[in-house]
Amino acid sequence: MSFGTLLIAALILAFFATLPTWPHSSRWGYHPSLFVGALILAAALFTKIG
């Protein structure tokens, strides 16, 4: 497994971990998951380019 694949897998897990499903995080909205989603997109683009 390459480093890029591991990075994308870790970021996908982080994306699901930041979804606002818990009562204490519901007022955060989707801001944390959107940030992690942007990181996933950037990692996918950089691994595709590199």
Structure description:
Helix content is 68%, strand content 0%. The protein is mainly alpha-helical and 50 residues long. The protein has one domain (3-49). Helix 1 packs antiparallel against helix 2. The two termini are 15 Å apart.
The structural domain count equals 1
Q: Would you tell me the structural class of the helices and strands? A: mainly alpha
Tally of helical segments: 2
**Biggest beta sheet attributes:** none
Roughly how much helix do the residues carry, as a percent range? Answer: 55-70%
Our measurement of the CA-to-CA distance between the termini, rounded to an integer number of angstroms, reads 15 Å
Classify the beta-strand content into a percent band. under 5%
Radius of gyration: 12 Å
Molecular shape:
elongated
Helix and strand string, N-terminal first? HH
Mean pLDDT over all positions: 76
Unreliable parts: none
